[in-house]
Amino acid sequence: MTAQETGTVSAGRGEPLVVLDGVQKHFGQLHALKDIELTVKRGEVVVVIGPSGSGKSTLCRTINRLETIDEGTITLDGKDLPQEGKALAALRAEVGMVFQSFNLFAHKTILENVTLGPIKVRGMGKAEAEKKARELLDRVGVGHQAEKYPAQLSGGQQQRVAIARALAMEPKVMLFDEPTSALDPEMIKEVLDVMVDLAQQGMTMVVVTHEMGFARTAADRVVFMADGAIVEENTPEEFFTNPRSDRAKDFLGKILKH
Amino acid sequence: MDAVFSNFDEYLKAFGLTIGLFVVSGIASLVLGTILAVLRVGPVSILNKAASLYVTLFRNTPLLMIFVFIFIAMPVLGYNFKVVENIEIAGYNVSAFFFRACLALTLYTSAFVCEAMRSGVNAVPLGQAEAGRAIGLTFSQSMTLVILPQATRAVIPPMTSVMIALAKNTSVAAAFGLAEATATMRGFTNDNADERIGIFLFFAIGYIVVVEVISLSSYLVERKVRVAR
Asked: Where does the sequence pass through the membrane (chain B) (predicted)?
């Protein structure tokens, strides 16, 4: 993390950064998000868990408007999410996103993947963007792969590059949409290590995951979703040892047994 | 055979014109067709509809009818494209006939280019566009920097077929006063009725060579730009 970034993060720590208010979303007949109220404070790590189809990924994707919403408002740093066009593109540049399937640009090298945003969106010079990209790639441990293409890297390496690509835009908040669900068990750790490191440095993060270990170690707050609604919100300690709702007890009973 | 050999310069000139029609309308339809494809997948509804109306109109109309419209109906309506004859490129004047033929071929072929291009765009995983948008690229940036470069690779085989069809479709211009290969072949056979089979074979070989060059270059391009996934 650059000095400038940590500066802004610590300066405003605790203020609301992402606010979802009365958010509703339908996919045809399916009510995918039901009256979602969620505030993510600056520097906070919020982990969203829940069974498949509970709307966690949809929730995550609405924050940078990859999914539109039917009702309600979402604000980022006090500003409403723009509808379409240049303003929306500018907003997305402020929100880093890491996908389950990595989505690295297949026709570009690792280095080009990381420099594309800074050069084309931020207007940064090529030399400066490459210097910064190499620093970020070193930080996530794939610096020596910079000249290769995505398909030549393992899944864990690709996901770390995807994190570096998002960080290169110096985002205000990072969204992780099941970042380890497509990975082998061995590779999950290397990605989670990078994420824990990021959390400790004060990055605001919204993480959709099935990794309960990560939720326990890195989360400030756990949000439990089921059937499109937020059922329970608590500290990880409280949530895992003493879940209040039956739905959460049932879910935890199933996943923590093995 | 003598008919071809003794007029070999005419034979070459005829295929020169065929290639000229192919190259000019090929480039024009690649450009127009790509723009149409971008409009069809783009976020603006009215442009989606306009592009898809264009494709419906020109893909579903026989090429011969488009030629008839441009060569016969348009001059009646006052559009004879004579102005292009004032344009000089590399010492040659563009003939209105050549321009009209290229226009008809481009209008027709660009509809097919659009659909081939669109299939290429659809072959690029959705996540690529989402990743582009997620780092703040605008629609046109994510098209030109992320989607189209990858779509182009997927699109080479179907696009080659479209281009081969175009190369052969230039023969329709024979009926509209252009002395390209097919018109010249007809002239040769009219003058030398006893050598019809030989003349026909020579012109067929000419077309085969042109088409083989197209498919060979597409093969080379395909090998060069192959991308691993």
From this structure: 14-39, 51-77, 89-108, 162-179, 199-221
